[in-house]
Specification:
By secondary structure, this protein is an alpha/beta fold. It has 15 helices and 15 strands. A hairpin with a 4-residue loop joins strand 13 and strand 14. InterPro entries: GH, GH_1_N_CS, Glyco_hydro_1, Glyco_hydro_1_AS, Glyco_hydro_1_beta-glucosidase.
Length: 468
């Protein structure tokens, strides 16, 4: 039996959500449609025709949700701002009613002793900006910087920790490559253009935040770094890893953290584009000093050269005949071994450990924060009204043990945000997948903390991970 593990005294314990997944109030107080409103309302895009029109109604139940966080002893809450709630057309002055919602939310968090961590963009681009070309166009990065300035001017006196983008890989490659995320486009060149302009938006936003935040304000970005493993020790499989690592990870870490795009990425994609959309000065602007790197991890990625031995499966990013991996048609994806979650994702904490060790080695002076980690299971409320989710507790215990071991082995990990606080709208899966540690009965909106919420609460309060 493993013994208890104690985390550093100042380790930050929190939970996370995203605006479109929980807020609802899709047309209230000046909010206009985002690309996810449009996508969800398009027949066949989202399971069961679900939308985020109501979601978990956090826009009206925010006080109840903050009380839940306080009851669970969370030290921090990572949430995202809805761009179309603050700046409905993506241009011009802010809507004060939209900003007031976030002011009230942040004030309540601070009153309860919970640190607010604000993400500027978690995928809900104003539809009007997409109508003008969206992320494949440079103007979107410029608009994003203006939006970042509005948000910082309004909330910078209350919020000291900011994240520019959440998982830009999903925005670029699932939104514009495979089309399984909004806006649902399927153009590999547009996906690469979107990746660059997301990088540029990040750099511009950090500049805007730095100009406005008080001394001590922190800036970060959250990346879903793929931990890519080869199926075999064949050199061809190692090259498959290299290709996917470039498209999944280094397309962002290269410009953001090192000021350059990887040469192998440019070479691999040369048949698609000459990257002439990268202008002089872009890479300097993208390469902004950060206070920490946000890391989202759920499961490892297993690849081989296409046609090698082993069952070829989906890459885990939705059903589409279009690939999210430009110029990587010679790569096959495989199901990693072991138990799986309700998403069909392999449960493998060693992937998180290996990932943290790699990041600590590649970027030794950059602190890390786990900004998302969690699992979906087929949860239900029993006859006694309780929701028991032992699979999620086991998942969290294993992954927190991996984080603890990574810290012991030299990784500078400063915090952990569990995904997610609430069951919510899970993008193209609608309401069919439950990631929350708090169960939501969607017809009534009733919140029921699951067994995992109480378990995680004890870990967050004590900083001690109990033995298995």
């Amino acid at each position: 039996m493993d013994g208890a593990r104690t985390f550093p005294r100042d380790f930050l314990w929190g939970s996370a959500t995203a605006s479109y997944q929980i807020e609802g109030a899709a047309a209230e107080d000046g909010r206009t449609p985002s690309i996810w409103d449009t996508y969800a309302r398009t027949p066949g895009r989202v399971r069961n025709g679900d939308t985020g029109d109501i979601a978990t109604d956090h826009y009206h139940r925010w006080r109840e949700d903050v009380a839940l966080m306080a009851d669970l002893g969370l030290g921090a809450y990572r949430f995202s701002l809805a761009w179309p709630r603050i700046q409905p057309t993506g241009r011009g002055p802010a809507v004060q009613k939209g900003l007031d919602f976030y002011r009230r939310l942040v004030d309540e968090l601070l009153a309860k002793g919970i640190k607010p961590v604000a993400t500027l963009y978690h995928w809900d681009l104003p539809q009007e900006i997409e109508d003008g070309g969206g992320w494949p166009e440079r103007v979107t990065a410029e608009r994003f910087a203006e939006y970042a300035a509005l948000a910082a001017d309004a909330l910078g006196d209350r919020v000291t920790t900011w994240t520019t983008l959440n998982e830009p890989w999903c925005s670029a490659f699932l939104g514009y490559g495979s089309g399984v995320h909004a806006p649902g486009r399927t153009d590999p060149v547009a996906a690469l253009r979107a990746a660059h302009h997301l990088n540029l938006a990040h750099g511009m936003a950090v500049e805007a935040l730095r100009d406005r935040l008080p001394t001590g304000g922190q800036c970060s970005v959250t990346l879903n770094i793929h931990h890519v493993r080869p199926l075999t020790d064949d050199p061809a499989d190692a090259d498959a890893v290299r290709r996917i690592d470039a498209l999944a990870n280094r397309v962002f870490t290269g410009p953001m953290l090192q000021g350059e795009y990887p040469e192998d990425l440019l070479k691999d994609t040369a048949t698609l584009t000459d990257w002439s959309f990268v202008r002089d000065g872009d890479l300097r602007q993208i390469n902004q000093p950060l206070d920490f790197l946000g890391v989202n991890y759920y499961t490892p990625t297993l690849v081989s050269e296409a046609g090698s031995t082993g069952s070829h499966t989906s890459d885990g990013h939705g059903n589409s005949s279009h690939s999210p991996w430009p110029a990587a048609d010679k790569v096959a994806f495989h199901q990693p071994p072991g138990d799986t979650t309700a998403m069909g994702w392999a449960v493998d904490p060693t992937g998180l450990y290996d990932l943290l060790r790699r990041l600590a080695s590649d970027f030794p002076r950059l602190p890390l924060v786990i900004t998302e980690n969690g699992a979906a299971f087929d949860d239900y409320a029993g006859p006694d009204g309780q929701v028991n989710d032992p699979g999620r507790i086991a998942y969290l215990r294993g992954h927190l043990a991996a984080v603890h071991q990574a810290i012991a082995d030299g990784a500078d990990v400063r915090g952990y945000f569990l995904w997610s606080l609430l069951d919510n709208f899970e993008w193209a899966h609608g309401y069919s997948k439950r990631f929350g540690t708090v169960y939501v009965d969607y017809p009534t909106g009733t919140r029921i903390p699951k067994a995992s919420a109480r378990w995680y609460s004890e870990v967050a309060r004590t900083g001690v991970l109990p033995g298995a």
